[in-house]
Amino acid sequence: MTEVHGGVDGDSAGPDGFAWPESVDPRAAAYIEGALGDASARNFAAWREHLIVPRVLRDVTQVSTEWHHDGRTSSAPIAIAPWASQTFVHPDGERATSRGAWAAGVPIVLSSNSATRVADLPGVDEGGAPFWSQLYVSPDRGDIVPYLEASKAAGALGFVVTVDAPTVPTDFPFRAPIRDIAPPSVNFAGGVMPAIAADLSLDDFRRIRETTGLPVLAKGVLSPADAAMLVDAGVDGVIVSNHGGRQLGGVVSTGAALPGVARAVAGRVPVWVDGGIRSGEDVFRAIALGADAVLVGRPAARALVDGAAGVEALVRRLRDELVTVMTMAGCTTLAEIDRSLLA
Fold this sequence. Notes:
Residues 41-343 form the FMN hydroxy acid dehydrogenase domain. This protein is an alpha/beta fold.
């Protein structure tokens, strides 16, 4: 049986030593931090193996972290990763996450298993962040059509299809007790998210794009060969992710997988990455290794304890730290960050 951690000590603490406040149900905290083996801890550690090489005698009077994507400009190359049932942490759940991200100038990815209907997210004219909709493809493909249509009607920028969950690990114990406190999956009929298809294929990406006319990204790519296959087939973006270490204990860390995937993609589509990002230095490392942007999941869940203000503060901290690292490395724009700045 794979060892399960709610961090590295088997409780609800994270591998970076974060401890949840008593206001959050311990079952929810353990569910959010839970991972198989030491996969989450290795995600966290992998970024720190890449040491930064500062450069000197460069004009860094003006440093910009602006990220240009989808015809938009965000304040930093950061998005909030999808995570389920955010009312576990704060009564405003996904609405607070959206408002906090908007205040900090970055987008979010909404989990299809959210506690807030996609139609009830605040719009960008109401102080809500631009968003992508994440989804799992179900065995009956018709089950996801209403969610696709509702997401498009709500203004989604596109869809993030999770590709690394063809099965649910039988030895991940936090899922069972969480059902006692989980809200219904409000985006699906009957409050139950459909089962996940074990026969996901490139045809599903084509159908989603044909149904919605919106871009479709693949989340959960770790193999360069898979990345090349997806891009060759016309997928609009690749997200390097190992599901926060929740699917496979011995999985490769995202920091180790990113360079190979980025080389295979070769700039043809955007590459994002998540898993273990905790600081502006980590954001810098990810960009240097070939990512266009990062997603933060567990840090955003922790920040949501303080509502929208907490999410905003998290993003602003990461952005401010990124400015400091870029200044020390002699970079004035994201485009100037490359592999030569890592030892």
